[in-house]
Amino acid sequence: MLEISNLVKRYGHDEAVLKGLDLTVEGNSVVAIVGASGAGKSTMLRCINRLVEPTSGSIKLNGNELVKLRGAALRRARRKIGMVFQGFNLIDRLTVMENVLAGRLGYVSLYQAISRRYPPADIERAFSLMERVGIAHYANKRADELSGGERQRVGVVRALMQEPEVLLADEPTASLDPRTSEQIMILLQSLASELSLPVLINIHNVSQAKTYTERIVGLRHGKMIFDGAPSDFNQDALDAIYGGIEAPEEEVAEVPPTAEGVSHDQA
C-alpha cells in the first residue's frame, strides 16, 4: 500500500508545486495521474522515489515512512520503487540484458556490478521477464538498435527486476507513436494484475487514462481536484482540471490486444 499524506513540495521561496496532496493506492490498482503541464504530476512521482525531496508531508510504502530515510536505509527503500521513464534512460552501448540486469544493482555487491557477474537466479528472472514482454530475442542486442516501443519494454523489465512494491511510470508513452503507446498501456495494465503491483502512471493522454486505468487522479496547480473512476471522469472534471482548455488527447489508432508485439500472452 502507498499512502501519501499532506505532501508539499516548494522550490525555494516560490509558490508550492504540490499543496497538501493526500493519496492512498492499494493492491494492484492502476492509477492515472492527469493534469496540465506544471500541475505537479511528475513532481509527485519523483517525491515518492525521492528523486525530489518533499518539503513536508508523509509518504509510506507498506508502512515504511520514506520521507525521513537517509543513506543506506533510503537506498534499500528505493529498491522497492520501480520507475519507468519517458526517455527510457537506457545505456545505449550496453545490451538489452545488461540494461535489464541494471535493475539488480541495488541487490548485488560492487564487484558483481562492475564485473557484471550477476547471480544465475537474476539472469534466469531477466530472461523470464523479457520473454513475458516479448523482447527475449533481443537479449544480446545493443539498446540503441531498438525501436522506441522495444526500448520502453526494456525499461519496464529493468524496473520489474527490482522486485518493486510499487511501479511509477512518468509519461511512459509520450515518446511513442499512438499504436505503440497503446501496447505499452496494455502491458502495464496486465503486469499490475499478474504481479499484484500498484502502478501510478503520469499521463497526458486522457483517452488512454480512461481506457487502461481503474482510477484517475486529476491535479491542477498542485492540488488534487478529482479522484474517481474513469466512468465518472466527465466534462465537468475535464474543465476543472484543465480550466476549460481542451485536454491533450492524441489521435489514437485502434489497436486490439492481439496487435503485433502484444499477443494474448504478452498483453
Describe the structure.
The chain has nine helices and ten strands. The protein is α/β, with parallel strands linked by helices and 267 residues long. It has helices at 41-48, 71-78, 96-101, 110-115, 120-133, 148-160, 178-195, 206-212, 235-242, and strands at 2-9, 18-25, 30-34, 56-61, 64-65, 81-84, 166-170, 199-202, 215-220, 223-228. Helix content is 33%, strand content 20%. The protein has a domain at 1-80 and 201-267: P-loop containing nucleotide triphosphate hydrolases (Rossmann fold, 3-Layer(aba) Sandwich), CATH 3.40.50. Strands 6-7-8-3-9-10 form a six-stranded mixed beta sheet, with helices on both faces. It has a four-stranded antiparallel beta sheet with strand order 2-1-4-5, with helices on one face. Mean pLDDT is 88; it is low at 250-267. Keywords: ATP-binding, Cell membrane, Membrane, Nucleotide-binding, Translocase, Transport. Residues 2-246 form the ABC transporter domain. It comes from Halomonas salipaludis. Its main location: membrane.
